[in-house]
């Protein structure tokens, strides 16, 4: 293979690995702007991956599997929101418990289940696919990839231009002041968690029925935590957050591609590279103090 072919192959792999991160990142970005640190992102993605494969196998439709993944993400977001905001359980504890619960449940269910393989169809864009180097990576993809062209600007508009987004940002920065003006702080935060759940579910479902066509134990392998690192890396700005997802996706693609290209490196180092990049990003960018002022802080009416 020529150098151009090698680069195109790495780009193709990088884009496929970036897509589930990008879907989940749009949701996590919105949730964190509302002041909610959604640790249960991993549970949303993993549960959606399992549910999408099970639904696709039962119905014979990968598209139905995608829809099921979104619904499972919504369900986990609903559970998290009600436990953290109605029952006032610590949101970090809720997230960690949900992650452990979904990991254990899916690990058990996959051992007693057998699913048929289904994948969503691939779209090839005429003429554009023939562009050298980037044509095949960008314009020969599974059709859910192109939903990002809708999801990304919609998420930005919701946060930055809509009245709902203005209220969302207010509860993330100054929840007490927002409450005084009549904004229902915890309701807005629960709504943000639902948006996050839907998109994280779509990301997990895409990973399962978009790229792999099956489910493996612990399939997401910490991608939810990488997405949280990407939001921090992006300093709570959507464009920078997505850039972080691209960097993590390309790092993972290099891990897979280098041995195939005949380049020998320590295998453990290659496996840990994307997670090491995420850790470095968190250490560097959390010092900039750009996070929403009430991020991760519970809201109790009348507190100071």
Automatic annotation (TrEMBL):
It is found in: Cell membrane. The keyword Transmembrane helix applies. The chain crosses the membrane at residues 48-79, 91-110, 143-159, 192-209, 221-238, 245-263, 269-287. The keyword Cell membrane applies. Its main location: membrane. InterPro entries: ABC_transp_permease. It is a multi-pass membrane protein. Keywords: Cell membrane, Membrane, Transmembrane, Transmembrane helix. This is ABC transporter permease. It comes from Microtetraspora malaysiensis.
